[in-house]
Design brief:
Layout lengths: L4 H6 L2 H9 L5 H8 L7 H17 L15 H6 L9 H23 L5 H6 L8 H9 L12 H30 L3 E9 L2 E7 L8 E6 L5 E6 H32 L3 H26 L6 E2 L5 E6 L2 H10 L6 E5 L5 E5 L6 H15 L12 E2 L4 E5 L12 H15 L4 E5 L8 H17 L3 E5 L3 H9 L3 E8 L6 E7 L7 H7 L4 H9 L3 H82 L2 H18 L5 H34 L17 E4 L6 E7 L2 E5 L4 E5 L3 E5 L6
Parallel strand pairs: 5-9, 8-12, 8-13, 10-11, 11-12
Antiparallel strand pairs: 1-2, 2-4, 3-4, 6-7, 13-14, 15-16, 15-19, 16-17, 17-18
């Protein structure tokens, strides 16, 4: 599959690659990322997606993947093809580093193959060897210097160099002492010129100091002279230094020749680590946009749940603005979606989201959707998004679009995903709409999958008439006339042309004149769509509310089920404890009978026989258990006893609480007392007669005495008899 350059530009795929490249830690990794193109090889795509998914998982566990950084070996790999070529010391150090890094990663993935099976298989054909680094370490030390023992000749030369340097130092020291005592030297006495120690001689005495003049000070008051006694040794040192460099060059040439058979392995190392770097970059990018690996469907279907446009998502995070996810699906029953609705409602972003996520997926990148989303792969992705007016070719927007449609007709088939923004625009609405309808029917007949955005009513009607095509609209708030950025499937959307115009301050009289200039049926059709959208929103709100209630009910059901299981488990434990206790009671009774018999007859032999018989009978019922089973049984028994005790304590506390709770006082019924009523106090037994009532107080006559009582404290025994 070769995706047209225009589609990649329309969907801003290059921006994604640019952002992706910032996560690479090697130059070759960045180059590999920049060269990524979507493919249609399902096996290869799945392999890449699985590798990235495993790497993302490593961010959240304790088995973090080791560092994979390396320096570019392309120059060294190329030089190995040339006979008698020589590497610089840094080249060998890079080879040692890449050998060690590759070995570390290969061993790590082998050790944790259960966590990273795909990453482990990625390097299965690469040899793990320490030979390369060990060979380099025998020649070059950790400071990047050639070791003395790299060869016998080098060792001999360096010993001579050290000896000569010692002689130079001794001879210079003698000259320094001699000329210092003669007061021929300046206060600084000595300095270094061209890496040689020289005497700082006063200019007036320069002829009295034998040696080679190496220079003078800026003022000319000091002349720098290398003493004659050290000159001979310096020449010898120069010869030895030359011999040393020649020997080093020979050693490096031999070492380079040693690595020539390893050229394919070094190439494997570099390609392997470059691949790991690209996987790492995709994993880091996936983490930054909360991307996951969706369900890969074998059927021709796409169901994106909570899908985000990655570029918009990152921009909004930086600007601290919300990003609205979209739900959208394409399958055999709904192959083509016609999205309508007002401008600035999010139609184009929805279109671009679907296209860009598909490109990312087919480039081995995880995508920012819900993990239950379902996706498939397309053989071709073609787009027509934006103005596309061509100044170079003197083509109008409509001419350019027609040229594009010609390309669409050539490429469209059952494995194509097409995305068209503002379908049919650029020409006369009626004529352009009719041609757009014909194009759409052709795409439909070829069983292509696609999404278009439009304001044309005839395309909305076509979508409602054809069985495998569906309408969708971007939700719009009728009250505030603000976009909600939510895609609603199954219903066409109103353009809210006049409502938006009114909100933007266009005079109402002008809007009315415009309404009169168009067909009444079209206005009514648009108004009906707007009304349906409003009703759809209300239904969605109700559905969301019901879903929340259903979710709560499910959670309560789960809690009850969990509680039921716990109760059953406790009942089983109590039953086991009860059975065990009953068995112990029976055993105790039998033991008590044996004790009674011994008490009566005092005979030990029958006692021991009865005891042994009892023990053998009990042991015959038991099964032999391992130490672990016995320990488990003891722990279970102990736990059951503890739970029983806790339950008993809880029950006792509850009973005590019930006893401590004061009984509520009986509600006193409101009684209309009259003179002559027989009454008694609520807490008394004596019955008296009311003689008089005044200010909610009654005088009660008990025969022997009278007393004044509040009416609230009295209970009616018998009403006064009515006079006949």
């Amino acid at each position: 599959m070769k995706i047209p350059e225009k589609s990649l530009l329309d969907l801003e795929f290059d921006t994604v690659l640019s952002q992706l490249g910032t996560h690479c830690i090697t130059g070759l990794g960045k180059e590999a990322i920049a060269a990524i193109e979507p493919i249609d090889d399902e096996v290869e795509i799945l392999k890449d997606l699985t590798l990235v998914s495993e790497y993302v998982a490593s961010f959240d566990n304790d088995n973090r993947i080791p560092n994979h950084g390396f320096d570019d070996l392309s120059a060294e790999i190329s030089l190995l093809k040339i006979e008698n070529s020589v590497f610089e010391i840094e080249g060998f150090r890079r080879i040692a580093a890449i050998n060690e890094t590759s070995n570390t990663l290969l061993k790590f993935f082998k050790k944790f193959k259960e966590y990273y099976p795909s990453l482990k298989s990625l390097g299965e054909e690469i040899e793990v060897t320490k030979e390369l680094k060990q060979k380099i370490d025998t020649v070059i030390d950790r400071f990047g210097e050639i070791r003395n023992n790299a060869s016998e000749e080098l060792n001999r030369i360096r010993k001579q160099i050290n000896s000569v340097r010692g002689k130079i130092g001794q001879s210079f020291q003698r000259a320094l002492s001699t000329y210092t005592s003669a007061d021929y030297l300046d206060d600084i006495r000595e300095t270094v010129v061209d890496n040689k120690r020289v005497l700082a001689v006063k200019a007036m005495y320069r002829r009295k100091v034998k040696g080679a003049i190496m220079g003078s000070s800026k003022t000319g008051s000091i002349v720098y002279i290398e003493p004659e006694t050290t000159l001979q040794y310096s020449r010898e040192l120069n010869n030895l230094t030359f011999e040393e460099s020649e020997e080093i060059q020979k050693i490096l040439r031999e070492l380079t020749a040693y690595f020539q058979p390893f050229r394919p392995l070094l190439k494997q190392y570099q390609d392997y680590l470059t691949k790991i770097d690209t996987i790492y970059a995709r994993a880091m990018y996936a983490q930054s946009i909360n991307a996951v690996l969706p369900i890969i469907s074998q059927d021709r279907e796409m169901e994106l749940i909570d899908a985000y446009h990655p570029l918009l998502y990152l921009n909004h995070i930086e600007a601290k603005k919300p990003t609205y996810p979209q739900d959208i699906s394409l399958h055999t029953q709904h192959r083509i979606i016609v999205i309508s609705g007002p401008n600035a409602g999010g139609k184009s972003i929805t279109l671009k989201t679907v296209g860009l996520l598909q490109l990312m997926l087919q480039s081995g990148m995880l995508i920012p959707v819900h993990e239950k989303s379902r996706v498939c792969f397309f053989g071709q992705i073609i787009t027509d998004i934006g103005d596309n007016q061509s100044i170079e070719n003197h083509l109008s927007t409509y001419s350019y679009r027609l040229k594009n449609m010609k390309y669409f007709l050539r490429k469209c088939n059952a494995k194509t995903l097409f995305l068209i923004d503002e379908f049919g625009t650029g020409s006369d609405p009626e004529l352009g709409g009719a041609l757009a309808e014909a194009f759409l029917e052709e795409f439909y007949n070829r069983e292509a999958y696609g999404i278009i955005t439009t304001h044309y009513s005839n395309l909305k009607v076509l979508a409602s008439e054809l069985p495998h095509m569906t309408n969708a609209n971007m939700q719009f708030d009728n009250r505030t006339l603000e976009p909600v950025f939510k895609l609603i499937m199954g219903q066409a959307g109103s353009s809210f042309t006049f409502e938006v115009a009114q909100k933007n301050g266009i005079p109402y009289s002008l809007i009315n004149r415009a309404k009169k200039k168009i067909e009444r049926g079209k206005v009514r059709f648009d108004a009906t769509i707007a009304k349906l959208q409003k009703e759809r929103k209300q239904m969605m709100d109700t559905g969301a509310s019901l879903k929340v209630k259903e979710s709560k009910a499910e959670k309560e059901g789960e809690k009850l089920e969990e509680l039921n299981l716990k109760v059953k488990a406790k009942l089983n434990s109590y039953q086991e404890l009860y059975d065990h206790n009953q068995r112990m009671i029976v055993l105790g009774n039998r033991l008590n009978d044996i004790a009674d018999r011994y008490f009566d007859n005092g005979k030990k032999r029958p006692l021991i026989a009865d005891m042994l018989r009892l023990v053998e009978t009990e042991n015959a019922k038991r099964k032999k258990k391992s130490a672990a089973e016995k320990r488990k049984e003891r722990e279970a028994k102990k736990k059951a006893e503890e739970e029983t005790q806790k339950a008993i304590v809880t029950i006792r506390k509850e009973k005590k609480k019930k006893k401590d709770v004061p009984k509520p006082e009986p509600v006193k019924p409101k009684i209309d007392f009259k003179v002559g009523d027989q009454v008694r106090l609520f807490d008394g037994k004596s019955v008296g007669t009311i003689d008089s009532i005044e200010k909610r107080k009654a005088v009660v006559n008990y025969g022997v005495f009278t007393t004044q009582v509040n009416l609230e404290a009295l209970d009616l025994v018998q009403e006064a008899k009515k006079a006949k």
